[in-house]
Amino acid sequence: MVWTPECHESWHAIKKCLTSEPILKVPDPSKPFVAQTDASNKAFAGTLLQQHEGTLHPCFFASRILKDRERNYAIIELEMLAIIFDLGKCSKYLLMKPFLIQTDHAPLFFLKENKSKNARLTRWALAIQQYSFSVQHIVRE
C-alpha cells in the first residue's frame, strides 16, 4: 500500500469524526460509566462509555502498541494490562463511583476475588482494588 495525500486526508477525516459529537460525548459525572477493553498480540485499547438517550456513546478512547517485553505475556495478562491502562487513563472519572468493566475475556472474572497464582496478575488486581466496579463478559464478533 502506498500512503498518498488522499490517504492522509481520509485518515484525519476519520479521526475527526470519531472524536467529535455525536460520536464522542462529554463525560457526565452524574451518569454511570462503562469501561470496555480489549487486547491482541500487537496492541490493546480501552474506551470509556456512558448512556446518552438510550445508547452507549464513547467519552474517551485510549490505545497503545505493546512493548517488546509485553509481547511475551499470556493473553490473560494482556487483557488485564488493557484494563490497568484504561483505568489509569480514566481514573479521574472512575475513582469516585461504581462502574462496569466489560471484557470479552471471561477468565478475568477473578479480578474481584484476586485468586490468581500469577504474581503479575495479583499485583495488578491489588492495584485496581481502589476502584468500585463489577465485571461483565461480552461476546465480540
From TrEMBL:
Keywords: Endonuclease, Hydrolase, Nuclease, Nucleotidyltransferase, RNA-directed DNA polymerase, Transferase
Gene3D superfamilies (UniProt xref): 3.10.20.370
Top-rank taxon, per record: Eukaryota
An annotated Gene Ontology molecular function: hydrolase activity
Pfam name, any one: RT_RNaseH
Coiled-coil regions, chain positions: none
SUPFAM superfamilies: DNA/RNA polymerases (SSF56672)
Domain Reverse transcriptase RNase H-like per the UniProt entry, residue ranges: 28-131
Listed name of the protein: Pol polyprotein
